[in-house]
Design goal:
Order of helices and strands: EEEHEEHEHHHEHEHEEHHEE
Number of strands: 12
Shape: globular
Strand order of the largest sheet: 6-7-8-3-9-10
Radius of gyration: 19 Å
Largest sheet: 6 strands, mixed
Length: 260
């Protein structure tokens, strides 16, 4: 396994955000994290990435205890594409992408030929040439998200975490970039764990699902094990219609307009 969480809990001012989360995630799988607003999904991603270290329980990433692993070392194992980006300096796209090589750079040494080659290849693959004279501060939210998707690939980590990372993207780039991540899972055996709000988008790419509600995991497993009316009603407090094709769910639609 590449990720193991053992009885992980997290509270703010006595309010439990996560409650005894225990999970084992395998290499070469695309995991979709689903749940209502405020369920604790983003908090779990922050803990996995070492951003939040004030939790109880244990978290291991590729056998390393997250609390005992330096941020630099952890950033060579897991990269993250967040929902929101805060850049207050007019960096170019290439400069932001080069930040993804920093975890691999030795202290007080220049970037290597490989570093520049990795950045150049992904820069061209994402079609960023038209932004050559544009700072990231001048880009739209969706354009910035594409840059940070690219930066995660530049970082060359075996695990990639996406925290609602397509929230600012149109449908074309949502599926284009998730397809890139899926290809990383298939060809490079990377592990991707992604928070989704759109169930049907998750159905297109995920191998396994993690349902979280009120800080508790309510269901885990593949599509057949998780995507049923009982689990979905328990997760969202509403009824759904599941459309299948060849015994596989291809679309999930609400049966009522408003949740209870």
């Amino acid at each position: 396994m590449v990720i193991e969480m053992r009885n992980v809990g997290y509270s703010i001012n006595g309010h439990e955000i996560l409650k005894n989360i225990s999970l084992c995630l395998q290499r070469g799988r695309f995991y979709g994290v689903l749940g209502p607003n405020g369920a604790g999904k983003s908090t779990m991603i922050d803990i996995l990435c070492g951003i939040n270290r004030h939790y109880s329980g244990e978290v291991f990433i590729e056998g390393k205890d997250v609390k005992l692993t330096t941020p630099r070392e952890l950033s060579r194992i897991i990269s993250m594409v967040p929902q929101n980006f805060y850049i207050n300096f007019p960096f170019s796209v290439k400069e932001v992408l080069m930040m993804g090589r920093h975890p691999h750079k030795k202290t007080f040494t220049p970037y290597t030929h490989k570093d520049y080659e990795v950045v150049e290849n992904i820069y061209n693959a994402f079609g960023f040439e038209k932004f050559e004279k544009t700072s990231v501060m001048e880009m739209s939210g969706g354009e910035k998200q594409r840059v940070f998707f690219a930066k995660a690939l530049v970082q060359e980590t075996p695990i990639i975490a996406l925290d609602e990372a397509t929230s600012n993207l149109d449908i074309y780039y949502t599926h284009k970039l998730l397809s890139v991540m899926k290809q990383q899972v298939l060809s490079a055996k990377k592990t991707v764990i992604s928070v989704f709000h759109d169930i049907n988008t998750a159905l297109c790419y995920c191998d396994d699902f993690i349902f979280i509600k009120d800080g508790t995991v309510t269901a885990t497993g593949n599509m057949e094990q998780t995507m049923n009316k009982e689990n979905l009603r328990g997760l969202y407090n509403m009824d759904f219609k599941i459309i299948t094709q060849n015994h596989r769910a291809v679309s999930i639609l609400p049966n009522q307009e408003e949740a209870e």
